[in-house]
User: Fold this.
Amino acid sequence: MARKADPSDKLIVSMLRLVAARGWAAVSLSDIADDAGIALSQCYDRFPSKVTLVSAYFAKRDQAMLLLVEQDRAQNANPLDADMAQDDETVRERLFDVAMARFDAMAEDKPFLIALQNTCRRDPALSLSLLPAWRLSICCVLEAAGIDTSGLRGLLRQKIYSGALLAAGRAWLKDDSADMARTMATLDKQLLRIERLHQVIPTRC
Assistant:
């Protein structure tokens, strides 16, 4: 017997499709519920706004990113020298791998993300409302790379790497190449610029 689709997943899929086709401002929560075939009351119980839907979307893609990272590490793990390999790998290398996994997890969602980015550029209020979700995603990336995000130092790390990941994200949205060369070059350049800060701000408190 086929498993019944999760209403939350259906709503997220509808949001991705409609916003990509019409733009953020032209899509209402009611439109999303109708497209998903879900009563607005049921939609509102889970997601009282489009912003909460976006937050749920990012959380799901962050989870997908973590699974990709874990699978990659499991495939490349060598029980005899796993600890040594982890120690030899630099913060920049770990962050690079995790960030690229995040782009892979969102690869099919580019049209939606481009539409969302275009609206954020014109709508500061939307950008501000999405900051909590963005911060959680940044923390997820950093923690997956073994970087503590707690305390004042953790907050500083979030701010430092947020800029690097935003720049790489903008490059990725414009990068149509199969090998994502432009994205990787931008990400590597950004991470190289701030690598030396780890001498002042250790990755672990």
In short: The chain has two domains: 1-48, 51-199. Residues 175 and 182 are 6 Å apart (CA to CA). The chain has ten helices and no strands.
